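Example 3.
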Amino acid sequence: MIHHVLAVLDAATPGAGPGNDDLSDVAAAISADPGGSAAHTGALVHPGAAGHVDTLDTQPSWHDFRQGWAMYREAVFSGGIAGLTLGFMAVYVVLRRMVFVSAAVTQAAGLGVAASFWISLQLGVALDPAWGATAMALGTAVVLAGDPRRWGLSREMMLGIAFALTAGAAVLIGSRIPQETGDIQAILFGNAVVVSAGDMHHLLWTSVGVMILQLWWFRGFSFASFDAVSARVQGLPVRLLDVILLLSVGVVVGEVARALGAMPAFAMSTLPGMAALLLVRGPLWATFAVASLIGAAAGVGGYLLAYREQFSVGPAQAVTAVGLVVVAALIHAAVGLAIRLVRWRRRAA
Amino acid sequence: MIDREPGPEPDEPGELVAETRRLVVGYRGKPLLPAFDLALRRGTVWLVVGRNGSGKSTFVRTLLGLTAPVAGRVIRRPRLRMSYVPQASDLDGALPVRGGDVAVWGRLRGWGFLRPWLSNADIDAQRAALADIDAAALERTRFSEMSGGQRQRVLLAQMLASRAELVVLDEPTAAMDGTSERAAYRRLRELVAERRMTAVVVTHAVAVAAPFADHIALFDPDDPSIEGGRVRTGAAAEVARDPRFEDFFGKVHAGTATGARA
């Protein structure tokens, strides 16, 4: 499928040069292929792998974007869906000091993709990388949900092992299948210019399922996460809730890593939580709601930034998420300053 | 060894909510203390005292069912409602929760979270609990903006909202000044009497807390007179006269402010 889309792009942009991995490539393709046939191929384009697609000399315009909307639509929606869901869970990730868990799970998802390619090539067994990513992410989440003290290890030791193992193994496997290295790199770093409708639907339904459970059991997840001992004393199944929470992170990260890339999956599963914690002064649910919206803004805004500035999509989404954290920190500082000023004036009066 | 004051039962008609039989607490099969018996009855306050590392926290975890005993048993009344009040510093100060959020967690029990919304009864219990400890104004205050004492009061409100029969409090006044400490123990004493609950309080503020206690359990793993240490349990005034207790905490007026129970 990938090759089909690349073929469309190749055909659309004869005489292409190497080294371009930005959305202008697709804009060029769309311009030459206004029917947007590539958008319906059910494939994922990794411009880094495409390599031989030409770049427009001029900066792509929003008019071009609207014209090519049929091709970009799934990727934009996927960014928004991923941000909404991962942003929600980012609050848990940050408050429970699980940022490194998220990093390890996203690396594992990348390894799952690489392993899927390798198995397909070496064994001739067609294995969907989406399943590989999800299976590895879930497996890692299950291992990390266990009690490492049984093996005489601390949680940090387990995280270090999991991160180093999955990151290293992904690169090693990638080196064994050089013909797919570009695709693997694209998935690890997130150069998903086009997301297939199938991947988007997969991500959508997974996210819907996870969010229904998260909202339904919200009171249990929050109590068990933030005051685990009291929750256990009051009879809540804290262990089960912990495992389900980690599996929820794992399954969504797996889907997002496959659809958008591991880098934006990591960014969206951590940074929106930080931004929301800086911004929200209201009730607990408001922090989660704002984190979801910030995640969605990072997913969609990052894509638009990548389009406009001809960046790779995944890094643009990650940087957008960081930018939102910086904005939140500035607002937080300004509000804090204003409050101190008001108090000082009251005291002076 | 077991060292228990004889015959407190005639003065304590309260229903037995939990007891320990030949209980040995410890970690990974290693005992921290010798076996001891305790009988926890309704309407009473127990102080658990001892030096750092004497096994107080391990006992509490064992009593609450969080840690398995090395030997012996903890017997709780069936369907006993328990609540644990951690030290305020045990909760992350950055939690994006307000006083009301923390207090209403006390209403969650078992699989009750399957109902995703709060009932009117939950909200009423939350507000009543906050009001009971003069913390109604903290309902909408962010946990991160509270002082240590305010956080502790919100955690006490969580305990009250839970309507627990057995409550375990870990250093409940650690973040309070002396005056607030006395007020907190006096209020705890009143609440124990009003609600007929059992309170087990782990504390180092023995001089402040002892007047409000019915019983004291002194954990003394280093007692030089007995190999393996000693657990001294009994009426507060009696244990407070124990030489080892006086070595640790000096002369303390124990059990002198327990009139609210009568």
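Residues 93-164 of chain B form one domain. Chain B touches chain A at residues 64-66, 82-86, 90-92, 94-98, 100-102, 105-106, 108-114, 116, 142, 158, 162, 168 (CB under 8 Å).
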